[in-house]
Specification:
mainly alpha, globular
């Protein structure tokens, strides 16, 4: 077994054991009628751990988990993403677009840039700020993502390709496979509800799902908020200050500038591939911690008149 395989096996075992343990904790707390605060602890923990499942899916979307066995790579990625209702193929299509168009211009993959008409009044100019704060701090980015998934599963592939360049390679076969995966994910939630009832589902998966929606939305753009723009899309990313807990939890995704420069580098090798920032992009290197990076987004969006 290679070193990569050993690291991968340890990480996957750790991810699965903690996910199952937290889920069992949620179920046990509900079944044994534990006090509310004892139910909240494993539910919130599972919600945060769903973000680890998302990062595993991210690693698989780049085919870094097991490049030698694409079928295994994709199977693991899809299993990790099932509880959060994300088909791997849709994630891969959108994420491929993100890497290829990241902050190329204000109209591209720049989530913190909004446009208003020239001479817009105060109310019209306030709309982007409301949308931004809802997106980042009220779970809005996850809602947007989930609605996008449903929309692209429902649209004919020819229409999906016109709606978003992210789906320019999207086929009817892709749509059918992704729809089947989405139905299985819904089925997982329905099965838990049938087993534990609506209240049990709410504690075992519902509340964790809401917590994940907030965590996902708060950190989605933390690595790109307010960074540079232009044709050199690989460099418009911000690393976050290393923290042992978040580095372990998010599989070193804080090394985000390195990830964008070299997306084929697996999570455990990102630190080894660090490079000195180019002077042209030095402003992206703020030294923020994960929490400070999240709070930095309170400064709001960039609003452009045209």
């Amino acid at each position: 077994m290679s070193e990569h395989d050993r690291r991968t096996a340890r990480m996957l075992a750790e991810t699965a054991v903690i996910a199952v343990g937290l889920f069992v904790g949620c179920v046990a707390a509900f079944v044994w009628h534990a006090p509310v605060w004892l139910r909240v602890i494993p539910a919130v923990g599972l919600g945060f751990w769903f973000q680890r499942l998302y990062v595993v899916g991210h690693e698989c979307a780049h085919k870094n988990l097991d490049p030698a066995r694409p079928w295994f790579n994709d199977a693991v990625g899809q299993i990790a993403l099932l509880p959060i209702l994300v088909p791997l193929s849709v994630f891969r299509a959108i994420h491929r677009f993100h890497h290829g168009e990241n902050r190329r211009d204000p109209d591209g993959s720049a989530l913190d840039v909004y446009t208003v008409p020239i001479g817009a009044g105060p109310l019209r100019r306030a709309v982007p700020w409301v949308l931004w704060y809802l997106a980042v701090f009220a779970g809005g980015w996850f809602v947007h993502g989930l609605v996008s998934v449903v929309m692209f599963l429902a649209l004919p592939p020819s229409v999906a390709r016109r709606v978003s360049p992210a789906f320019r390679r999207w086929t009817f076969r892709d749509q059918i496979k992704a729809s089947a995966v989405f139905v299985i994910g819904i089925g997982l939630h329905v099965a838990v509800g049938a087993w534990l009832g609506a209240a049990g589902w709410a504690w075992a998966l519902g509340l964790p799902f809401l917590v994940f929606a907030w965590v996902y939305s708060a950190q989605l753009y933390v690595y790109h908020y307010g960074t540079t723009m232009g044709p050199e899309v690989r460099f418009h990313a911000r690393p976050l200050k290393a923290n042992p807990v978040t580095s372990w939890w998010l599989l070193h995704l804080a090394e985000h500038d390195t990830h964008h420069r070299s997306p084929s580098v697996p999570w455990y090798a990102l630190r080894e591939h660090r490079q000195e920032p180019s002077p042209a992009f030095a402003a992206n290197y703020t030294g923020h911690t994960w929490l400070r990076g999240v709070l930095h987004q309170l400064r709001g969006p960039t609003v452009i008149e045209r």
